[in-house]
Predict the 3D structure of the following.
Amino acid sequence: MTDKDKIGKLEPFDPANYDSIDLDRLVLYTAVKLKELGIELSLENIIVGSFKLFPKKFSLEGYMEFPDATRVEKSLWRCKGKKRQWIGGKTPHGYLINDKTMNISTQIEAQLTNKALKKEQKTPSRLRRKEGILKETKSSSAYSKYISGKKESISEADLCYLLQGTLDSSRETLRENFSLLTKFAEELHRKDILKFLDWLQKRFKYFMRDSSK
């Protein structure tokens, strides 16, 4: 069986299981899955594999039936950076799995599995999860500074921590987490948190913007 045939048999995950997982980690997870199937880790194979497993995240805007190659390439570029070194190799020769790749893949596997198990639970369980995330938001240093009149002292690091990231996290990942947090606040009608998030969005609009544009 050819690599093309093997990739063609990949089944997509339910979008609900990976909505909150950033692109870089999903690409690394894909690379490990392809390696396990004996598929060469070429750029082309990783692009198509990512699209097959996670179509909502890796489809071309306006053409949902096609993969967005640029999105995968950027993720691989970030993962190969000196600060991360999450994956090895080079585009012309193929990519290489290392210990960091495997560790991240294991973490993502656990997340996908846990979310898959929760999928069949009743709505109250999902509600408790959203409430828990919003509770964490209110206990964050950023929110504490906001309500105590010290909102101008909220730093970029405070924002990243609130969004479950770091200063090294990609802006795309931070924006995705911010959107998810806003969605939960809207669904639970938490006007206090929505007001806080609106202020953050205005204050950090330049920090959060897509630097590639």
Confidence is low (pLDDT under 50) at residues 115-122.
